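Data card: per-record layout.
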Amino acid sequence: MERRIIVVCGPTAVGKTKYAIEIARALGGEIVSADSMQLYKFMDIGSAKPSAEEQSLCRHHLVDMIDPRMSFSVSQFQKLAKEAIEDIFARGLMPVVAGGTGLYVNSLIYDMDFSVPPGDTERRKELYALAEERGNEYLHSILAEKDKEAAKRIHPNNLKKVVRAIEAAENGSKIPGFEHSFVKTTDYDAALIGLERERSELYERINRRVDMLMEAGLENEVRALFDMGLTEDDISMKGIGYKELIGYFRGNYDIAEAVRLIKQNTRHLAKRQMTWFKRYKDIKWFNISEYEDDENCTEVIVNWLRKL
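The structure for this 308-residue chain is written out next.
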């Protein structure tokens, strides 16, 4: 199992943290979080961050390290995560990637190039000025003239990507489509494990977890971040649980409706995550609902990994 990472993925509330810890402990590994919310400081409850006790069982990387007031991108994640993976390898241990943020997982198992091609700084300023003066749709129409395929893929409001695509087109090249991002990395091998549960059981776990997060003080956590000046415009506050409570703070609805929305949006997220991970052709799925208990399922997973 030299130069191999284990990736534990699946929908929210399925039990990724618990399973990843048990797998890491069984195989002598450390965990690299691939969760876009657990990265942030001060966001412990809403992100369902591993508890201090859980982190004491197994070392976790990329948890509780970024100020939520700072912008953070998948390219930054890829860099930090790969550095953590190499550090784990260097100490003779097994990197276990755990998380449900599909794009983050993609950045570690496929060769996704996030580098920005060199461009004309003045032209870039001109394009941003055009967007400010005439709107994002106008700039998107320029892209459509130069690269129709890119325009179909890129939303007009994704201004940074629109500008980058225009620059690429004007330099005689094109930004590769998402489908070209599925070339496996040669940095290491990856064993992909997908965790799932019967839908009714998963949704029950989601509802129960939201209730537990509220009891644990999620409202106070979000209010503290709100008081720090963070709003729904910040990327960190677009996570489920945070944006809904901000709507409550603004008087858009009562607390009961906020909780209902959190549960509903979490279920929708779980469905999107399953759709994303089901695209991985070489993933090994384990339906936890079919096993006697977590311990039995973990044992089966670990035995499967040991045979690779």
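Known properties of this structure: Residues 200 and 216 are 24 Å apart (CA to CA). The first strand starts at residue 4 and ends at 9.

See the next section for split statistics.
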